[in-house]
Structure formats: C-alpha cells, structure tokens
Amino acid sequence: MKLLSLRGWKAVELEAQPAVEVVPEAEPAAWPEGVVIRFVTVGGAHVDVTGPEYSDQTSWYCHGCKDKSQYPYAGYLSSTRSKANDHASACRALPKPEVSR
Length: 101
Ligand SMILES: [Zn+2]
Fold this sequence. Notes:
Elements: E1 3-6, E2 9-13, E3 20-24, E4 35-40, E5 46-50, E6 59-62, H1 77-90
Antiparallel strand pairs: 1-2, 2-3, 4-5, 5-6
C-alpha cells in the first residue's frame, strides 16, 4: 500500500478504491496566546499574526527565519495578513527542532 504524508495529514490509499482519502492524523496543537492567524511557510515553519484583531496594532513574526513586521511594526489586520502570507509563501527556513538533552 502506498502512503503519502502531508504535514498534519495522512493520505491513505484504499485497496479496493482508486480514490485517495485524506484524514487528519491528530487534533492540531493549540495556538499560542494572542495568535490571530497562523501561516505555514514553504519550509514548514509558522508565521504568526498577533495583536488585537480590530486594531492597527497587529504584527507578524516568522518562527523559521525570525523575520518580523517592519516599517511599520504594527498595522491593520488586512495589511498584516497580506504581508505575513507573502512572507510564508517565500520563506524556506526550517522550523528549529527541539533540543534534546
Ligand atoms: Zn521566515
């Protein structure tokens, strides 16, 4: 049986059917406090948009390359969302793995 793996999802090829069924692997982890929108980057890291949703104080931060909102640091959600999504579409930084001791 051929299996495909997508981040957070598992595709299972059914033997009697040519179709591929996509089912969630597990319940997604809760987002950190204050995160309004979360984008996944090309490299698999997250770009988080935070701040009061209906304000001009939203900003974004990339957990892959550590880049963040600049000029201005904070703005309205419509602008911040677009910039965060653009960054996620281009960022190839991998998420930093947990350090084992
Ligand atoms: Zn990045």
